[in-house]
Recover the amino acids of this structure.
């Protein structure tokens, strides 16, 4: 049980740090309010997505990553 | 309960508090939002000492109320727009650290309430100290004021399940069977045993919100209590939220309504409401009153008599009662304008009322129970010759009409024209006007009203006791 609780904590921390970073981008005008809201919605359901789905949906929000 | 260790934060607290317990509560509620229902009736935001924790708690309640779920992302999104919360990420990260098992919820609430109680006491003591030091007035007055302050600080916080009380009891088998034979299986909705009303409504349907509106003194409360007793006599549980009268007043009203049936050989009341409210004059009356009490004792009527309830608290309590009595048949809320608006709302009164009505309609749907919501009408009714309420009288009071499945008005012409009642043919009469009915007819049901017993009688009802 301790392990599950730790995992939950880590995941929620990660989400908060993730949002916090995106909020910085929003404040700096790098992303739009709409994109920010979309990221929030995505994070809210992130537990039900695998990595590929996550990448695909992020690409849908921001466009494909430039390499 | 021993105090938890002080949290490792960078400032000293002046007053008793348990910041870690506050954080544990918030962490648990975000992790297990369904537990919100179980705490809103006994955990107030003012119990939180830390202003940011208080804000997070209010945000959790607000989100849960509108979405039925809570997450860190949603809380973050709300908080980031609040100028009083400059760094929501830091606050929320500390909550994830404090996450513990949900079994810690109630002990943490107790710890927070204990600290709150101590703060109240300390605050009262400080005020008394200041008052004594600076006031040169009369000692007796000072003592009285000090007692008031201590009393206020030591009064138990209301809430919890103690204010849901059952009259606990059932009907006599004979009467139940008689009604069952008379009504069959109730193929429509819930009948309230007033044929004139039931024939128009075809019974109150599950999931429906029914508004019962009227000017003060028309008998709204009396009518719904008559409904409640009639329904409960068929062993169908009824839940009453009385935001105005206390439990005892409701109990007295129910008893007095039943005393109406007790008649002597000349058809006169054996016990008048005056006698009931003062004292009974002989043993025979006492034993007859006792028989009435005994007949009512088994009725499955549950009363919440707390003032200042919010729709969130009403929902939480109704859910608890529904869980306890799955066959809950009717919820009555007396009345709309006494429901407390949500904290920190910047909406207009009209919007607040509209929100409350919508939330109660949703509650009726969720619990699969009809809800009768009483509503006051404004004085506009009285500025015209025909004082019978009409649908447009509700329009100044939010979207009541829009969200209601049925709108009923109670009107007693005699109240406005007592001297002309005989001539107008309205003496002793009451009208229940169905102004809107999504699933049945509109129209008017005529009843008789006996004010002394707060009793409505169907004019078509030929039962001997009427």
């Amino acid at each position: 049980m301790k392990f599950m609780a730790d995992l939950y904590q880590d995941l929620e921390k990660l989400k908060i740090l993730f949002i916090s970073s995106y909020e910085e981008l929003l404040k700096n005008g790098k992303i739009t309010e709409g994109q920010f809201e979309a990221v929030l919605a995505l994070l809210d359901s992130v537990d039900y997505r695998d990595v590929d789905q996550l990448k695909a949906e992020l690409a849908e929000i921001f466009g494909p990553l430039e390499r | 309960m021993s105090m938890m260790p002080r949290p490792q934060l960078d400032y000293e607290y002046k007053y008793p508090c348990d910041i870690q317990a506050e954080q544990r509560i918030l962490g648990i509620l975000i992790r297990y939002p369904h537990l919100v229902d179980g705490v809103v009736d006994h955990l107030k935001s003012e119990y939180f000492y830390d202003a940011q924790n208080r804000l997070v708690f209010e945000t959790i309640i607000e989100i849960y109320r509108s979405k039925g779920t809570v997450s860190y992302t949603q809380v973050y999104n709300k908080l980031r727009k609040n100028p009083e919360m400059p760094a929501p990420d830091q606050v929320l990260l500390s909550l994830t650290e404090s996450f513990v098992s949900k079994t810690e919820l109630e002990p943490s609430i107790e710890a927070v309430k204990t600290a709150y109680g101590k703060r109240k006491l300390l605050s009262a003591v400080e005020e008394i100290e200041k008052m004594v030091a600076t006031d040169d007035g009369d000692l007796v007055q000072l003592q009285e004021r000090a007692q008031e302050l201590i009393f206020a600080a030591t009064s138990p916080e209301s809430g919890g399940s103690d204010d849901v009380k059952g009259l606990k009891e059932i009907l006599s088998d004979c009467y139940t069977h008689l009604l069952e034979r008379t009504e069959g299986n109730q193929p429509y909705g819930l009948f309230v045993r007033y044929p004139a009303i039931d024939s128009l409504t075809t019974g109150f349907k599950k999931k429906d919100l029914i508004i019962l509106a009227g000017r003060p003194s028309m008998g709204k409360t009396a009518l719904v209590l008559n409904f409640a007793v009639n329904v409960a006599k068929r062993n169908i549980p009824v839940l009453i939220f009385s935001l105005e009268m206390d439990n005892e007043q409701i109990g007295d009203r129910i008893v007095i309504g039943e005393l109406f049936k007790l008649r002597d050989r000349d058809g006169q009341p054996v016990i008048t409401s005056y006698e009931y409210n003062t004292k009974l004059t002989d043993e025979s009356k006492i034993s007859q009153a006792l028989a009435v009490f005994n007949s009512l004792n088994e009725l499955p009527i549950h009363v919440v008599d707390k003032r200042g309830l919010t729709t969130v608290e009403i929902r939480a309590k109704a859910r608890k009662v529904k869980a306890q009595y799955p066959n809950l048949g009717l919820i009555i809320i007396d009345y709309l304008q006494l429901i407390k608006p949500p904290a920190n709302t910047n909406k207009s009164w009209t919007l607040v009322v509209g929100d409350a009505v919508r939330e109660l309609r949703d509650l009726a749907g969720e619990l699969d129970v009809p809800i009768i919501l009483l509503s006051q009408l404004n004085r506009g009714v009285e500025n015209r010759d025909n004082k019978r309420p009409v649908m447009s009288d509700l329009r100044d009071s939010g979207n009541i009409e829009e969200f209601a499945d049925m709108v009923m008005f109670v009107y007693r012409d005699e109240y406005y024209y007592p001297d002309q009642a005989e001539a107008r043919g309205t003496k002793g009469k009451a009208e229940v006007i169905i102004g809107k009915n999504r699933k049945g007819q509109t129209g008017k049901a005529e009843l008789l009203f006996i004010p002394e017993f707060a009793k409505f009688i169907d004019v078509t009802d030929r039962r001997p006791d009427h």
Notes: The interface with chain A takes residues 31, 71-74, 76-77, 80, 89, 92-93, 96-97, 99-101 of chain B (CB under 8 Å). Residues 239 and 457 of chain B are 22 Å apart (CA to CA).
